[in-house]
Amino acid sequence: MSKSYSLGLIGYPLGHSLSPHMHRAALAALDLQGDYQLYEVEPATQGQAELEDLLEKMRSGKIHGLNVTIPHKQNVIQYLDELTPTAEAIGAVNTMFLENGSLVGDNTDAPAFLAEVKHLDLEESQKVALVLGAGGSARAVVYALISNGWQAKVLARKVEQAQEVVAHFGERVHAFVWDTDQFEELGAGCKLIVNTTPIGMFPNIDASPWPMDLPFPQGAAVYDLVYNPAITQFVRLAREQGLLAQTGAGMLVEQAALAFERWTGHNVPRDIMRQMFDKQLSLSEASPTWDSSS
Ligand code: NAP
What are the φ and ψ backbone dihedral angles of 130, each rounded to 5 degrees? Predict the structure, then answer.
């Protein structure tokens, strides 16, 4: 009898997560048996027993793979035997699997973001990025950038948050307070501007992290981690000024595909997951929670 994969996502809340749709589409496309379920596990002590139970099911082979999202990306680490170098460097896990009896935590957000940057086909010189926001996803973004020769200017309204990112990742990262009057100066010469805040996410679709009336740095590209709506205000503004700009759908699909490969050993057709994502996003009137990453 062929293996039936038991996969899923731990987080809270999980609302209208799109992950089950993408992973089920991948299972079907590869003719694999199995399912991907949502496990809403409350934060802190309320959810601790349930979290431990799910991890025990992974150890015993009843569950074959789990994604992790807020609020558990850091606190699962204490239950794991090993971290991949990427998860270790970022200090957060979004994918777990069992390998030779060891429960391993990985982070597929960083390679997924990097794959998206490579698609933007940016010049290899003067790689300086402006990173808007300094939360969980900013860390994966900054790690991906500095591991590939970039410098990053990180902006946060609580500057200590950006300073923590600098303290974690070192001298290629610089912290600044979020002051839109300074965006022009800070953006000058940057090749990439990345939004890692939820600004512009459904239902606040008219908001943009970049001031509406401020020109973008010449020749920069824009990446918005927000993927709902399909075209964010930030991306629309950038495209209107002739910049190459993408929303976070590609990153969401890629991080899911990388996790799926870890669990099943099968290379997933990204277009199958992407088509399912686009279909479900267009069907969804409520905001899907950005799941599995950051
Ligand atoms: P997070 O850990 O809560 O961090 C959010 C960051 O944005 C914090 O620095 C926060 O600062 C800042 N921020 C929020 N509202 C702001 C505002 N109005 N002005 C300035 N800064 C603001 O969240 P996250 O996990 O990094 O996720 C952030 C976004 O990334 C979400 O919208 C999510 O959809 C998206 N995401 C997408 C993917 C993908 O695969 N495409 C993966 C991960 C995340 P404060 O602490 O001051 O609020």
Answer: -105, 120
CA distances from 222 to 85, 173, 192, 198, 255 (A): 28, 19, 6, 15, 19
Nearest CA-CA partner of 96 in 105, 88, 87: 105
pLDDT at 274 over 50: yes
In 144-162, which positions are buried (b, 16+ CB within 10 angstroms) versus exposed (e)?
Answer: bbbbeebebbbbbeebebb
Give the pair of three-digit tokens for residue 206: 């008219």
Distance of CA 47 to the CA centre of its chain: 23
Find the 26 Cα to ligand 1 centroid distance in Å: 28
Site of tokens 């920069």: 220
β-pairing, 95-99 vs 151-156, is: unpaired
Residue 34 DSSP SS3: strand
What's the pLDDT at 285?
54
Active-site positions read: 73
Strand order in the sheet with 192-195: 173-177, 151-156, 128-132, 192-195, 221-224, 244-246
The rounded Å distance from CA 79 to ligand 1 centre is 26
- 106 close to ligand 1 (CB < 6 Angstrom): no
Q: What is the mean pLDDT of the chain?
A: 94
Residue 185's Cα: distance from chain center in Å?
Answer: 28
Ligand 1 pocket, residue 161 CB under 6 Å: yes
Using one digit for the tens of pLDDT, what is the confidence trace for 276-287? 999 999 987 555
Residue 257 contacts residue 268 (beta carbons within 8 Å): yes
Q: How many Cα atoms are found within 13 Å in the side-chain-facing hemisphere of 152?
A: 31
Place of tokens 């495209």: 239
pTM above 0.85, yes or no: yes
Per the listing, tokens 């009057």 go with 181
Spatial distance between the Cα atoms of 82 and 96, rounded to a whole number of angstroms: 10
